[in-house]
Each structure stands twice: as C-alpha cells, then as structure tokens.
Amino acid sequence: MLPYYENYASLHPTKKDKWGIPLLHIDAQIRDNERKMIVQAAKDLKEMLKAGGCTNIRVSETPADKYIMVGARTHEMGGACMGDDPKQAVLNKWAQSHDVDNLFVTDGACMPSCSTQNPSLTYMAITARSADYAAKLMQQGKL
C-alpha cells in the first residue's frame, strides 16, 4: 500500500479495552494501485509456479474483498512514521517519539511502506539502532 495522506490511525473516540484504554481505530482504504498490485502478484505467482513444474494452477483475476481488506494477511505500516518535522511525523530518525523522550516505536508503525516481503529483519535493525541510541542517551543522563 502506498503511504496515502488520507489513511491514518487514531484512538477510537468511544470504544475501550477491558482496562479502559481506547482501542486503535484505523481509517484506511485499499485503492486502485493496490488492487492492480494484487492482480499482478497473482499473475507473477502463476508464472513462477508453472516455471517450477506445477500444474492445475488457479488464480483469480479479480481479488476477493477478504484478501484486500486493510489488515488482512498483510504487514500494515505507517501508524507512527519517522520524520524531522513533529507536525508531520510522530517519530524522529531514531524511532523516538517527538513528544515523549523515553518512547521508541521500532515495529512497522515507524515505516511508511516496505518492499515486497519480510520486513521483520528491518524491524530488528531499527530496534538495535534505536536501543543503541537510547543507551547512549542514558549514559549521557539525557534519558
């Protein structure tokens, strides 16, 4: 999914969990670009399976809605993006909150998008980098 400005995450205004904490509310839509990417991925997969000797392969030219729903079988990202401007981004370049010094967000929320697969190694690298930075801030008495 492209990082559309209109897509956003917020705290739900009325729904809360069993501890009284507001639930996450995601307001995002799959658009034409993503639908085209899903169709193309199915075609590419079919081609790869054929090249590997597979037979009786069936792919849909029109993806079912259950496969294109935000949060279904995907790595959603971008709820707390990094950036230099606190008015435009939740986190700085160290994945540290602009507003809360001891808060670091090192999962997919800090990334506006990713490549085709396996973002977990990137999360791990961001976490190691952020932890090193936090440790240095603690040694300096700044955190």
TrEMBL record:
- The species this protein belongs to is Paraglaciecola aquimarina
Gene3D superfamilies annotated for this entry?
Answer: FAD/NAD(P)-binding domain
The Swiss-Prot or TrEMBL record describes its family as follows: Belongs to the GMC oxidoreductase family.
- Which UniProt keywords are present, listed alphabetically? FAD, Flavoprotein, Oxidoreductase
The uppermost taxa in this organism's lineage are: Bacteria, Pseudomonadati, Pseudomonadota, Gammaproteobacteria, Alteromonadales
Know the name of this protein? Answer: GMC family oxidoreductase
Q: Transmembrane region positions? A: none
Q: Could you name the domain of life of the organism this protein comes from? A: Bacteria
PANTHER family named in the record: PYRANOSE 2-OXIDASE
Is-annotated flag, keyword Kinase? no
